[in-house]
């Protein structure tokens, strides 16, 4: 399966998930400004023009939460998601939805060149409330869903990675800082980061 990605973008989450699930990763680097991949029009792959997109035997999938659930379901033994019908699966879907709508979209604002000081403060305040909630949910657990690493962790880790380049201070949430370090230390996460040129 081919994953269309841009280094460090939200596509890092399914990249991590594929490695954690033991699924061979075919990486296709997308030039997001030019909307090009392999010298061709990326919009022919994903008409939305952004990453991620995953080429599967059944066709192309887009949107991070959907791709993450698909990856988890490809290898149920990986423990990346609970099985259908399990309440824990619904809780993880709830977390994926929250991450994509409240944290991903919030943190993504900081990369908009049109952002001014007032807008930045408003986004910072709102995002702070959302991170308060996540930190409370995490508590003393090693991962969002408990003892087991899940695709929700791959997603949250990826978005928290944006804090430093966007100059968003995470020091108010030591629980999340420790969590970020813990996820970063996972061997498969390191593999993904190295493959995208994000660490040496």
Commentary on this structure:
Helices cover 48% and strands 11% of the residues. The chain is globular and about 40 Å long. The protein has two domains: 2-78 and 188-195, Glutaredoxin (3-Layer(aba) Sandwich), CATH 3.40.30; 87-186, Glutathione S-transferase Yfyf (Class Pi), Chain A, domain 2, CATH 1.20.1050. With 200 residues, it is α+β, with helices and mostly antiparallel strands. It contains seven helices and six strands. The chain has helices at 12-21, 64-74, 87-108, 117-138, 151-160, 174-184, 187-195; strands at 2-5, 26-31, 36-37, 40-41, 53-56, 59-62. β3 and β4 (40-41) form a beta hairpin. The chain has a six-stranded mixed beta sheet with strand order 4-3-2-1-5-6, with helices on one face.
Key features of this structure:
200 residues; alpha+beta; Glutaredoxin; Glutathione S-transferase Yfyf (Class Pi), Chain A, domain 2; 6-stranded mixed beta sheet; globular
């Amino acid at each position: 399966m081919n994953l269309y990605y841009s280094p460090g973008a939200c596509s890092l989450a399914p990249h991590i998930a594929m490695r954690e699930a033991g699924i061979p990763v075919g990486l296709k680097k997308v030039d997001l400004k030019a909307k090009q991949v392999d010298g061709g029009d990326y919009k022919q792959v994903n008409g939305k023009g952004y990453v991620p997109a995953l080429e599967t035997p059944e066709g192309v999938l887009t949107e991070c939460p959907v791709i993450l659930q698909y990856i988890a379901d490809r290898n149920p033994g990986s423990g990346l998601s609970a099985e259908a019908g399990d309440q824990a699966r619904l809780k993880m879907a709830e977390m994926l939805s929250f991450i994509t709508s409240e944290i991903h979209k919030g943190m993504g604002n900081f990369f908009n060149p049109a952002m001014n000081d007032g807008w930045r403060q408003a986004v910072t305040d709102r995002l702070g409330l959302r991170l308060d909630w996540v930190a409370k949910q995490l508590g003393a657990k090693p991962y969002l869903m408990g003892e087991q690493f899940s695709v929700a962790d791959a997603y949250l880790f990826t978005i928290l990675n944006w804090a430093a380049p966007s100059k968003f201070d995470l020091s108010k949430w030591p629980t999340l800082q420790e969590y970020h370090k813990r996820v970063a230390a996972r061997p498969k996460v390191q593999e993904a980061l190295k493959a995208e040129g994000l660490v040496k």
